[in-house]
Write a structure and sequence with these properties.
By secondary structure, this protein is an alpha+beta fold. Helices cover 15% and strands 45% of the residues.
């Protein structure tokens, strides 16, 4: 890149230098871990009551040539909220170290109170409806998704609200 920035070359030569720089990035990708999420996202239930947890599990695999670490991120989205809600909310994550070719199961226990929000009366409400679960390497790199339904509304004390799901790596 330094050569490109300091060169007074014709546009074609500059493009070739940039292409060589991108090729270097591609070569770097070959020597770092490459992670896949083979299989499906598994939810232990498709319907739940407001205070019953939902277990979410998946498999992550290192398909690269070297050992590496993947941070598996769990997001949740309220499909039809009665109030304006975030497009997606980070609910948990797990840092997974893998050797080449190795795969591990990652499990999260999602507490429905993580879906609670302050309603118009400033009470923490778990609202009935459909919630989408998304899992990936980042909020912009979602690889797996599924959904479940909370069957009824409920209220809870703010001090009992859960804010994240712990990831268990097995």
């Amino acid at each position: 890149m330094k050569e490109y920035m300091n060169a007074s070359l014709a546009p074609k030569k500059r493009a070739e230098l940039l292409l060589n720089e991108m090729t270097l990035d591609e070569k770097m990708a070959q020597i770092t871990g490459v992670f896949a999420f083979p299989g499906n996202l598994v939810l232990d239930k498709k319907e739940t009551k407001p205070f019953d947890p939902v277990t979410v599990s998946l498999t992550v695999k290192n398909t690269g040539a070297v050992a590496g670490t993947e941070t598996v991120q769990l997001y949740m989205k309220d499909i039809h909220a009665s109030m304006t809600r975030p497009v997606k909310e980070l609910q948990g994550f797990a840092r997974v170290e893998l050797r080449p070719g190795e795969e591990k199961k990652v499990t999260f226990v999602l507490q429905p109170s993580q879906m609670a929000f302050l309603d118009e009366d400033m009470r923490w409400k778990i609202e009935k409806g459909e919630f989408e679960i998304q899992v990936g390497s980042s909020s912009e790199d979602i690889r797996l998704q599924d959904s479940f339904i909370v069957t009824e509304n409920a209220y809870l004390a703010g001090k009992t609200r859960a804010f994240y799901a712990l990831g268990d790596i097995g």
